[in-house]
Design goal:
The chain has 18 helices and no strands. It is mainly alpha-helical and about 325 residues long. It has two domains: about 100 residues; about 220 residues, no CATH class. Helix 2 runs antiparallel to helix 3 and helix 8 packs across helix 16.
């Protein structure tokens, strides 16, 4: 008779190690793994096939070590690092998506997005809006567009100041989840946007001038996407981050969270968010089809995000998770 091996001890150790991960940790690790697998399989003939998975492996190990250390450490400093690290890490992941999408896909889907807009409106919305452009309006919209990078942080800061840590974790998870969903869209449907396809990118400052700081803010956005306004082949190098509109999706999520948690800033974020979404088309970064795509994904992200968050909490901290009131209102 063969010897029966009892694996319960190993299983228990494995589960114990997994349970140190918070929902945000698990979400980031899963996304890094997804990108690594896609690059390994499809990005052949480029050094990125090994570089990006290697970087993701290092990042994944660092996240696990951080979560493990914080689980055992009473240090408030490291707990704060663990709570907030996902937001600055997004900057690095966004830049990784630049290389990943360029390595994985060589087709652009702008023509399809243009066709959707023309089917819906009978024209190109960015071209029509150009007829009503004004320097003051452009200045305002370009400024609000930049505020997007601070939008999600307002919710996190408000919740953390009130020591609503579980709500903070949920908000962080939902925002990061929204970003990653949009990143998957960039892989599936890479596009460069109307400023390159329907307009002359190099004439933007002349055709859509601001008042004082618009050129500097516009150049800040350009550099974040790996280009400058003087780079000759900008369209070939720019980040393919158009569909769905991440600005729209994350803004909708932030507005939703501000009302869900009754943030004092919700009546400021709501009108600013609407203006921000409009600015993405006016400033020629997005087609209306991108906004529609984000709008359709929005309820799906809310539903699946809540389900994934609470499922992970029940798995990793069953007693705490069951005893806490649901986040659904």
């Amino acid at each position: 008779m063969g010897r029966i091996i009892d694996t319960s001890r190993e299983d228990s150790a494995f589960i114990k190690n997994i349970r140190v991960l918070h929902a945000v940790d698990a979400l980031i690790l899963c996304f890094l793994l997804l990108v690594a697998i896609l690059v390994l399989i499809f990005a052949k003939g480029t050094p990125l096939r090994w570089i990006l998975p290697g970087l993701n492996l290092i990042g994944g190990i660092a996240i696990y070590l951080l979560a493990t250390y914080v689980e055992k450490s009473p240090s408030l400093f490291w707990r704060q690092i663990h709570a907030w690290y996902g937001f600055p890490l997004l900057v690095l992941i966004y830049k990784e998506m630049y290389w990943a999408v360029h390595a994985l896909r060589d087709k652009l889907y702008d023509s399809y997005l243009i066709q959707i807009d023309r089917f819906l409106f009978g024209t190109d919305p960015t071209v029509e809006l150009a007829k009503y452009a004004h320097p003051i309006l452009t200045e305002i919209l370009q400024t609000v567009y930049i505020l997007f990078y601070f939008f999600p942080l307002t919710i996190g800061i408000a919740l953390m100041r009130k020591n609503r840590y579980r709500e903070f974790q949920y908000a962080s998870f939902l925002i990061l989840y929204g970003f990653f969903v949009s990143y998957v869209g960039y892989i599936l449907f890479p596009a460069v946007g109307p400023r390159f396809t329907l307009h002359d990118f190099y004439a933007t400052d002349r055709e859509l001038p601001g008042v004082w700081i618009t050129p500097y803010l516009r150049e800040f956005v350009n550099r974040g996407e790996g280009i400058t306004s003087t780079l000759p082949n900008a369209v070939d190098l720019v980040q393919r981050d158009v569909f769905p509109s991440g600005h729209t999706l994350i803004t909708l999520i932030t507005m939703y969270l501000s009302f869900l948690f009754r943030s004092k800033t919700r009546f400021i974020l709501a009108p600013l968010g609407i203006v921000l979404i409009f600015s993405t088309v006016y400033l020629r970064y997005h087609y209306v089809a991108d906004l529609i795509g984000a709008g359709l994904l929005f309820p799906i992200v809310l539903w699946t995000g809540k389900y994934l968050f609470e499922t992970w909490e029940i798995f990793t901290r069953p007693t705490q998770a069951i005893s806490k009131k649901s986040l659904q209102k």
